[in-house]
Amino acid sequence: MTLRSQPTTRSESMEKTYTYKDFEVTVKLEPVRAVSSDFTYGPAAAYIAVVSICTADPRRPIGVPVRLIAEGNRAFGTEDEALTTGLNAAQRVIDDRFGS
């Protein structure tokens, strides 16, 4: 198993790309922001993980991106928790669909 992480930081979201077996897994974080009573946005309070899986070469998607949340219908509390859960979910899909 080879894992490679390439962080890409954008203004409003974080995205990491991993290589797992012969697939490219991208986990993008969508921030969930708390809104105060005066309608100003604060820093990200939680995250939703959006997971995409593609073949590595040639690069082709093997399905549609999937949005993941934590148990209890809540967003993930930290970036690490969202990224780890997204990668683990993609690894299970790859292993189940294409053999381990």
Please give the structural blueprint.
Elements (H helix, E strand, L loop, with lengths): L5 E4 L4 E7 L2 E13 L5 E15 L4 E2 L4 E3 L10 H20 L2
Keywords: Plasmid
Describe the 3D structure.
- The chain has one helix at residues 79-98, and strands at residues 6-9, 14-20, 23-35, 41-55, 60-61, 66-68.
- Helix content is 20%, strand content 44%.
- Residues 1-11 have low confidence and may be disordered.
- The chain is elongated.
- By secondary structure, the chain is α+β, with helices and mostly antiparallel strands.
- The longest helix is centred in the last third of the chain and has 20 residues, at 79-98.
- Strands 1, 2, 3, 4, 5 and 6 form a 6-stranded antiparallel sheet that branches.
- The chain has one domain (6-98).
Summarize the model shown.
This protein has 100 residues and is of the alpha+beta class. Helices cover 20% and strands 44% of the residues.
Relevant terms:
alpha+beta; disordered N terminus; 100 residues; 20% helix
How many E strands?
Answer: 6
Helix and strand sequence: EEEEEEH
Q: Helical amount among residues, as a percent range? A: 10-25%
Helices, by number, come to 1
Percentage of residues in DSSP E strands: 35-45%
